[in-house]
Structure prediction request, 376 residues.
Amino acid sequence: MKFCSECGNTVVHRIPEGDNLPRFICEHCDIIHYQNPKLIVGCLPVWNEQVLLCKRAIEPSYGLWTLPAGFMENQESLEEAALRESREEANANLDIQNIYSVISLPHINQIYVLYRAKLLDLDFYAGSESLDVQLFNEADIPWEQLAFKTIERTLKQYFEDRTQNTFPTHTSVISRRNRLGEKKDIIR
Amino acid sequence: MKFCSECGNTVVHRIPEGDNLPRFICEHCDIIHYQNPKLIVGCLPVWNEQVLLCKRAIEPSYGLWTLPAGFMENQESLEEAALRESREEANANLDIQNIYSVISLPHINQIYVLYRAKLLDLDFYAGSESLDVQLFNEADIPWEQLAFKTIERTLKQYFEDRTQNTFPTHTSVISRRNRLGEKKDIIR
Prediction:
């Protein structure tokens, strides 16, 4: 950030009084421009023994497989965001079952929130951001061609939970360190 | 938003190609300035039968009681944010137990994420954003002096869950309509 989005004057980057982190401040408007993490919200759609994955038609990870998910918009709830993204990317008709996987990625200021959802029919098809949409059995998941570590972790957790038929909400962290291969455990 | 935060030129507000919502766009930088909901993250600190509340020293809801929570920062995980806010507002030493209450407030573009947490000692005291910090038994909760509906809902849910000694993650929505008294049910 270089300029104030309200007045167009140059911003400064310093710690405001009573704060402990540097912020972008417009001394003309006397506004602090906070910057906060973004939510990526989606679904893990399930049809009997199968899960639905989308092949990405956009970067990053063009051509790799993912769960339908995307940036949450203003003016919507988490559940609305999860269903909207599933419609946009896979034209999937879903019933949300529960909030399932919550993963913080502090190095890129993102939080993933994925809902377990029941696919209501087989009328899905690729939206404009997908090259393909398919159902996969566990044995056929393209583990080496998944778009994001969040998706891999959520799918592994799901198949593990399915052996117990219990699907509690899992929260975990994927840090930069993990991208170099050191994997943090799921913490709860 | 009136000006591009990267170049200081005036932005336009229109639907970008391939999108379906109007965005603030800088036609000089060719940047779309997305605006997204913010996360408010905190804890429900528990000591035996009691829960810890903070009396707010800042607006909004100055003088009313709340759980320690605040805007999530970049570069931190949800759990780190929850613990940081609890330290800042109540100097509370906590162990996080589980993600407990997730509430969307679409009319103000906020998502609350509150963790159930175990208070480790009684060395808590008011931080600069609190007038007071106290432990409350269920019978003594100041229901009429709670700062936010999210806090009321979370506390009610907690005392209800405690009768079963089971604390699953609850997600729900508080919409503008609810502020007029019409209350949506907790949806899962």
